[in-house]
């Protein structure tokens, strides 16, 4: 279970004229309990939705309040939280670090599987499950954008997280690869929180959160919540 208790994120903003720095609120305070298996987070660019996502595995720590994942406080139990919560970025190149797919997945297994041959065997099996078996030994840069995103997901899932948080995982993909990644996320047994601009994908979630100006302004069932977000964006466009 994911719990946010009056979680607030702020940042210091320098004064370009040389005056005192000011505090800028990026998100919150937010109080939420998230138990649903599939949760979508939508919002305009700069609304704070990515900050919310990063709170869930300790990439961002609250300036005040707390974030608790399965009983673990992200500020106090950071390493344990990150073992439990996998994170997938918009751009897979931000997290793929090894020369080939099989090496990248095997790297994720290093903590739990000590034998190198066993790691490679498990990595190849994981790649086969997502249709990348024939790409296992290619240079990562030779993969398409969709294949690299599948590889990034596979490397994260190899660690067997309880929760998977994805920050706009399909934004850089074409329609075909967007469908492939969406289908994979829908098939996972883990609790999945997805930040997305894809409203069709959001409608397939169990719950939708709308973030605007650093606050969760709508929270509920997919259809009415997406409709509320669309109305919010239409209003913003007329200003």
UniProtKB/TrEMBL annotation:
Q: ATP-binding: is it a keyword of this entry?
A: yes
Kindly give the SMART domains that the UniProt entry links to this protein: AAA
Superkingdom in the source lineage: Bacteria
Q: What are the record keywords, sorted?
A: ATP-binding, Nucleotide-binding, Transport
Q: Name one GO molecular function term.
A: ATP binding
Q: Name one Pfam family in it.
A: ABC_tran
Residues forming the ABC transporter domain are 2-238
Kindly give the PROSITE patterns that the UniProt entry links to this protein: ABC_TRANSPORTER_2
Which is a Gene Ontology cellular component entry for this protein?
ATP-binding cassette (ABC) transporter complex
Family (UniProt): Belongs to the ABC transporter superfamily.
Q: What is this protein called?
A: Cobalt ABC transporter ATP-binding protein
């Amino acid at each position: 279970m994911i719990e946010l208790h009056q979680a607030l994120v702020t940042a210091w903003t320098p004064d370009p004229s040389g005056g005192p720095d000011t505090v800028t609120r990026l998100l919150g305070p937010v109080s939420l309990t998230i138990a649903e298996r599939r949760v979508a987070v939508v919002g305009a660019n700069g609304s704070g939705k990515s900050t919310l996502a990063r709170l869930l595995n300790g990439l961002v720590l609250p300036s005040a309040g707390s974030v608790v994942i399965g009983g673990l406080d992200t500020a106090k139990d950071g390493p344990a939280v990150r073992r439990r919560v996998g994170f997938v970025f918009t751009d897979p190149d931000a997290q793929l670090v090894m020369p080939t797919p099989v090496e990248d997945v095997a790297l994720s297994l290093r903590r739990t599987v000590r034998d190198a041959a066993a790691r490679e065997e498990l990595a190849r099996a994981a790649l086969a499950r997502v249709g990348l078996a024939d790409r296992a030994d290619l240079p990562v840069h030779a993969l398409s954008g969709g294949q690299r995103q599948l590889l990034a997901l596979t490397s994260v899932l190899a660690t067997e997280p309880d929760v998977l948080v994805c920050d706009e995982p399909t934004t850089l993909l074409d329609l075909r690869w967007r469908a492939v990644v969406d289908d994979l996320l829908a098939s996972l047994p883990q609790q999945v929180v997805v930040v997305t601009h894809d409203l069709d994908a959001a409608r397939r979630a169990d719950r939708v959160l709308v973030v605007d100006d650093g606050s969760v302004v709508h929270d509920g069932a997919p259809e009415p919540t997406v409709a509320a977000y669309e109305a919010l964006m239409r209003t913003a466009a007329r200003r």
